[in-house]
């Protein structure tokens, strides 16, 4: 019989103190950058800029400056300069090290842990500037402070190469940070004008006192942002293509320690709830206590006004979902550091408990007063909410009747005879592939997993749902079939829990027409089935562009998704290779399409996300507007199927 002591001795031999690795703080960031910037893709790359920009904006927000400028240089490096107080350069008492050196090399070293240096700040954990330094080839800091110019330089992930030095006198004040990301740590190394432009515009909306300048030396482009009316102008941009009810409402409280600003507007033909929240100018994409307070306060205010004016009975109060349908609102709170709490370092959800009752009561009092002063608007708003309630109640009763088998009316629906359904009733495991063309549809049907994968070939290009009525959209064969196939309703009646598929996958050719079809379908989902996107259920398939094979033995082959991987595949196959260039999905055999694009273990998918609502609204305005030439130019310049954009993020092996 085996002695248990043998297992103990084996374990001790395999794992001991020599296996424990110790990293410095900077080395730890380089080892696991995703923990600090989310990922090493385009999003993470640009996060390096945001960390430095946030420091400059914090200076402005606390009254110590007015300008922050960002310059992208020809060599791919970036400079960020502000006109604040300048980073402290005196010696830190406990360590004997210059404060500036600590700020850029030590985690959790900074002036934002109390309210002495900053009343409010975007940074909380004191890791931002350190992370940017750790992930850069070099980071060079010039400080203009106390009439002197100071300089310090780091290279190769934060190693000090030029200690703090004094360069001479100056009348300027502020901080200039010049850095270049370490290309060996990122999958993408090119900064995008659009990404920086949209982020700075968003910051300018949120911090009215700031002027943000952007310059790109690579393209000879420049722009300056400054908005006197901040959040009101933000909502105006978000609703620019919609039909608003009344004016943009704006409420602001600067008197309390926690400052609150809210801008909001309802739109008549918008079926979505659009609430965007910020804490100390950081987007809280997962909401939090400020959103909770906002929703509760709005629901109370509308119901109290409606019942007190006899429009709604006390026993028939409106549900919050019906009140918020068609609402676009931006809520921004500025919180002292000792009260600022997030759920994680990425700061996507605010958890400060005292914020909920403050925002709740503030928006309640503000909105009740506004409704009392604007009765015509109040009546129109309540009528809209009642219509939403009636539609939702009718949809619920129809579902209950259908489930119980008591429905007597046959629902008219246009169902494509080309739909190949999935056999499983385990809906969350099912996938719907919306495929461009009959040829690709045939290959997809042959190569699919019949149990969990359904195939719907498109007959042609779908309608642009941003420029037609809902009635016309519902008569369209393609969209009617998609609606009936997904089985969760549409518009105000859509319920994501009723979806027959856990993934909706758009599979089109890798060309301009395929990209156009993707945009048309995404616009439809955004307008009429937005919860599919917010729940992460919409994807774009990524078929390969090339197949490299050995001419003497075609069974030896490698697929390539871009020109870089094509060159790598050529080297691996070696001399005597051949190349298949796939111009469309229909050129792939069923087994090739299945292996590269449909098999869960080997395929690549792009998951559709709404990273920035401002970007999405501007994209739709450009791509779905009446200027077809503008749309085509944008697609040709920006759509890359192996790249990442603010609208989509790469997810592999899903």
Distinctive features:
654 residues, alpha+beta, Ribosomal Protein S5, domain 2, eight-stranded mixed sheet, six-stranded mixed sheet, 21 helices, 22 strands, flat, disordered C terminus
Mean pLDDT over the residues: 84
**Helical residues, percent:** 25-40%
Q: How much is the radius of gyration in Å?
A: 28 Å
- According to DSSP, the number of beta strands is 22
Strand order of the largest sheet: 5-4-3-6-2-1-7-8
Head-to-tail CA distance between termini: 45 Å
Query: How many structural domains?
Result: 4
Name given to the CATH architecture of the largest domain: 2-Layer Sandwich
Question: In the CATH hierarchy, what is the superfamily of the largest domain?
Answer: Histidine kinase-like ATPase, C-terminal domain
């Amino acid at each position: 019989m085996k002695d248990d002591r043998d297992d103990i001795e084996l374990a001790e031999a395999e794992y001991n103190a020599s296996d424990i690795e110790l990293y410095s703080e900077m080395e730890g960031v380089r080892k696991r950058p995703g923990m600090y910037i989310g990922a090493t893709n385009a999003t993470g790359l640009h996060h390096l800029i945001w960390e430095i920009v946030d420091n400059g904006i914090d200076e402005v927000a606390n009254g110590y400056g007015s300008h922050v400028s960002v310059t992208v240089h020809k060599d791919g490096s970036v400079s960020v300069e502000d006109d604040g107080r300048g980073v402290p350069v005196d010696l830190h008492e406990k360590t004997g090290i210059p404060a500036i050196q600590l700020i850029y090399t030590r985690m959790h070293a900074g002036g934002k842990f109390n309210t002495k240096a900053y009343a409010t700040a975007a940074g909380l954990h004191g890791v931002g500037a350190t992370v940017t330094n750790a992930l850069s080839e070099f980071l060079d800091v010039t400080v203009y402070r106390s009439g002197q110019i100071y300089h310090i330089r780091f290279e190769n992930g934060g190693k000090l190469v030029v200690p703090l030095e004094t360069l001479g006198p100056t009348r300027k004040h502020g901080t200039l940070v010049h850095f270049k990301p370490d290309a060996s740590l990122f999958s993408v190394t090119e900064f995008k004008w659009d990404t920086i432009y949209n982020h700075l515009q968003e910051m300018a909306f949120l911090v009215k006192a700031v002027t943000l300048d952007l310059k790109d030396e690579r393209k000879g482009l420049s722009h300056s942002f400054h908005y006197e009316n901040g959040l009101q102008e933000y909502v105006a941009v978000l609703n620019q293509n919609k039909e608003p009810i009344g004016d943009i409402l704006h409420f602001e409280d600067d008197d309390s320690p926690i400052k609150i600003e809210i801008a909001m507007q309802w739109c008549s033909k918008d079926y979505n709830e659009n609430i965007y929240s910020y804490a100390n100018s950081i987007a809280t994409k997962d909401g939090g206590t400020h959103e909770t307070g906002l929703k509760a306060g709005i629901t109370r205010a509308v119901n109290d006004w409606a019942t007190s004016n006899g429009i709604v009975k006390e026993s028939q109060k409106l549900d919050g979902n019906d009140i918020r349908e068609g609402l676009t609102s931006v809520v921004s709170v500025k919180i002292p550091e000792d009260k600022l709490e997030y759920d994680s370092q990425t700061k996507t959800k605010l958890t400060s408990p005292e914020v909920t009752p403050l925002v709740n009561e503030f928006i309640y009092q503000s909105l009740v007063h506004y409704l009392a002063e604007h009765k015509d608007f109040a009546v129109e708003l309540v009528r809209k909410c009642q219509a939403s309630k009636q539609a939702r109640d009718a949809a619920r009763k129809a579902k209950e009747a259908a489930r119980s088998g008591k429905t007597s009316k046959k629902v008219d629906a246009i169902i494509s005879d080309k739909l190949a359904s999935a056999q499983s009733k385990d809906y969350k495991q099912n996938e719907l592939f919306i495929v461009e063309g009959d040829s690709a549809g045939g290959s997809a049907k042959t190569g699919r997993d019949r149990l969990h994968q359904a195939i719907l070939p498109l007959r042609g290009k779908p309608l642009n749902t941003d420029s037609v009525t809902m009635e016309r959209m519902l008569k369209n064969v393609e969209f009617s079939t998609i609606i009936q196939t997904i089985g969760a309703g549409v518009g105000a009646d859509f319920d994501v829990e009723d979806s027959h598929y856990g993934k909706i996958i758009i599979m089109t050719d890798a060309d301009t027409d395929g990209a156009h079809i993707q945009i048309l379908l995404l616009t439809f989902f955004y307008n009429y089935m937005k919860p599919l996107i917010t729940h992460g259920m919409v994807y774009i398939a990524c078929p390969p562009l090339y197949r490299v094979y050995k001419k003497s033995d075609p069974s030896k082959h490698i697929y390539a998704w871009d020109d870089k991987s094509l060159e790598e595949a050529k080297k691996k196959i070696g001399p005597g290779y051949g190349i298949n260039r796939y111009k469309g999905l229909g050129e792939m055999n069923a087994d090739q399409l299945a292996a590269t694009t449909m098999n869960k273990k080997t395929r690549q998918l792009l998951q559709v996300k709404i990273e920035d609502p401002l970007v999405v609204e501007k994209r739709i305005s450009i791509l779905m507007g009446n200027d077809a030439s503008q749309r085509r130019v944008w697609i040709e310049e920006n759509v890359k199927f192996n790249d990442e954009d603010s609208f989509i993020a790469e997810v592999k092996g899903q």
